[in-house]
Amino acid sequence: MEKNIMGTNVVTQIGILCHDIEKTAQAYADLFGIEKPEIVMTATEDIAKTVYRGNPTPARVKQAFFHVGPNLDIELLEPDHEPSTWRHDLDTYGEGIHHIAFVVDGIKHVVEKFERNGMKEIQKGEWIGGRYSYIDAKDLLKVTVELLEFDK
Length: 152
Hints:
Structural class: alpha+beta
CATH architecture: Roll
Shape: globular
Helix content: 25-40%
Strand order of the largest sheet: 2-5-6-1-7-10-9-8-3-4
Mean pLDDT: 96
Number of strands: 10
Strand content: 35-45%
Largest sheet: 10 strands, mixed
Number of domains: 1
Distance between the termini: 30 Å
CATH class: Alpha Beta
CATH superfamily: 2,3-Dihydroxybiphenyl 1,2-Dioxygenase, domain 1
Radius of gyration: 15 Å
């Protein structure tokens, strides 16, 4: 494998899939002794432009974020039933860790490097302010890698 594919080694997010985000978010809030964060739904198809395994999908996911370090969030995810990596992994593997995320510059170039090294992009999309890509790195790294790029 090429070295320093992403240009960073700073984990910014750990994504956890769950069936009931309200219940799971409350459990984390209780664990940390804080108020439960707002639970939000990702953007609609016209904004998100989500592509899963090469095909557009209207998939959306409920999210809750816990800031647990200067650069680290725990992201809880409850997907809808449309085709997505979230739905696939929740149905296939059950609840638990889905991804670790890194902020990168030049996401398209970084995705190309992953793909050159045998790790394929399985889903990508956008939000107002940036874009993401999920890389299937399970064989080599034992987890899905999420790349995040913020608009400047």
